[in-house]
Structure formats: structure tokens, C-alpha cells
Amino acid sequence: MTAINTPIRTEVPQEIPFNRTPRNWKKIGVIIAFSVIPVGLLVLFTYYPFIEMVKYSFYNMKYIGTPKWVGLNNYVAVFHRDDTLAALKLSLYYAAGSILQVLLALYLATVLSFKVVAGNFFKGALFFPYLINGIAVGFIFKFFFTRGYIFDSVLQWFGFNLNNLPYWLRDQAINNWSLVGTSLWRYLGQTVVLFIGAIMSIDSSLYEAAEIDGANKFQQFIHIILPSIKTILVLNVLLSITGSLSAFEAPFVITGGANGTATYFVLMDTIAHTNQKVGLASAMAIVLLGLILIAALIQKIIFKFAFRNSDDGVEDATKKLKKQRKMQRQRNRVNARSANLFRNGKRVHMAGATEKVVK
Predict the structure, then answer these.
(1) What SS3 state is found at 235?
(2) pTM above 0.85?
(3) Looking at domain 82-307, does it have CATH number 3.40.50.1240?
(4) 228: number of CA atoms within 13 Å, CB side?
(5) Could you report the per-residue pLDDT of 103-126, keeping only the tens digit for each?
(6) 207 Cβ contact partners less than 8 Å away, ≥ 6 residues apart
């Protein structure tokens, strides 16, 4: 076996060996076959309707008839109509309710994550409303808040006079808060369960070490629980903000949008299906999407600043994974340079800046 040292030929890349493992086309075919149906359904029922909605937003059109191109007039109308601006202001009620929901859920989840008498019962009782259909919840609270029915009867048991009680669904000073309370009752359990799952995943040794150091329960919550559930906290806040901007079921079923309770989604439904202004409704939907993205960005900035000195382990794991991938790529390059190549029926071994032809 002899070796001949010759300069490396520039037309042969050193990083890629010629004797690569052939592609497993059967495996690739199976992956494609299993991906075609879900991806096709996603494109057909999500991306294609979204693209069509964006196109409709530039037209003055009904469900039947010839569309008329109006450009950006629909988007201008969204910010100049009094009803759309009033509907956007109603989102502030639901945003306040969502903040209260996250805070209350965080408190209840922290308590129920540890040993509590009848803890499983309370977890189930809190989560049960989320399992009920939204339309059913609307009908339940429609009778609950009706004058002289359940809520007023309970208050009279405690000594309140019916004539002194407000009309919970008619009085515009309180009706939106009543609807916010309905949403809070329904979605509180979902938020609690997400928080409980995150809190119970924390290593119990951290609490033991904190107790040895003299930390009380509140200090453990601030320095152990909050940083550890940062990801779930951000998720719940994001879901709450999205829900406050897109509230629909409660006002639609309970009041039908009457007496100043028409949220942005209820108004959009009326404009699209009752007034048949499809172009304007499509523009409203695009504007709502933009508002949700802006709210999510603001929320991300706020939480990034609030948790700038803490880490839940995800960021460190991500950095470690990126570092491992980078080292693996470097090892692959080194292995490629020293791999056995086949050229003109002869085996060539790449080594540094020379080729060793093995006979």
C-alpha cells in the first residue's frame, strides 16, 4: 500500500464525501403521505379562506352580486365608524376581567398545587364550567341575571330589596361587568389547570432548600414559583388578551348585543350577516388580527423586562441545544474532510490539504 501526495483538486469540495448513504425513498414517501392530508386540510380550511378574506376586504360586496373595488376605504371606515370604536372600547372591560382571571387563577393554582383538604374536588369544580358549551353557558346566565330570577332571588335572601337592585342586563353602567363575570366563571378553570400543571412540575427540593434558608411562602412564590412558570404565565396572559379582544358567545347569546353590549365580534357578525357588508366585515377581521399581534408584542416586551433576571430553564436548554448542534456541524465537517472518497475506481482518503490515493 503506497501513498502519492498531490495537491488537492479545487473542483472537488472537501466537505461532502462522495460515498454518502443513499436516500431512503420509502421512508420519505411515508412521511410525505402522512403529511399531505393534514397540510392539505390546513391550507384548504385556514390559509385559503384567510387569503380570500384579505381579498374581500378591498371590495364593497355582498354575498350575492358583483363586488366593487374600493381599495382601503373599508379599513378607513373601521376607524371612523362610531359603533366599531365603541365595540373596541368594550374590549377594555374584558381585558380587565382577563387580568383578574389570571391573578385569581394563579392564587388558586398555588394553593391547590399543595396538600389541601378536598383538593381534587375543588380542581374538578373549577374546571367543570370550561367543559360546558358556550351557548349553554349563555342561556344559563341569561336566566341567572334576568330580573326577579336566580341572582335577584339569592340577593333577596340576604335582605336586599328587589326595587333597589339594578337591571343586570339592561343598565349600561353594570351590564358589561355582568357579561365579564360570565366569561370569568367559564374560563377560570382552564387557566387554573394550566398553572397547576406548571407548578407541580417544579422540583420539591427547591422548596426544602428555601425553607432551610428561612424563606416564607410568599418569598417562595416570588423567587421559585413565578420564575419557574414564566412560560405558562405568558401563555395564559396571551390567551386572556386574545379572548378579551374576541369575546363573542356571552354577549351574543345573553343580550344579543343590545344595550351597549355589542363587542367587536358581535358587531362584525351583524355587519357581515345582517347588513351583508362582507368587505367591511373582512376589513374588521384583519384589523382585529393586527390588534392581537400588537397586544401580544407588547405583552412579550413587558414580560421580558419583568423576568429579565430570572430563567425557567427553557432558555438555558435552548442555548445548550444550539451549542450542541454547532459542535455537531463542526464534527461533521472534520469527518467529511477525512472520509473515504471514490474517484475513477480508486479509493481516496482526504487528509488535511493532500489526497492519499490508496492502491
Answers:
(1) helix
(2) no
(3) no
(4) 20
(5) 999 999 999 988 888 888 999 999
(6) 220, 224
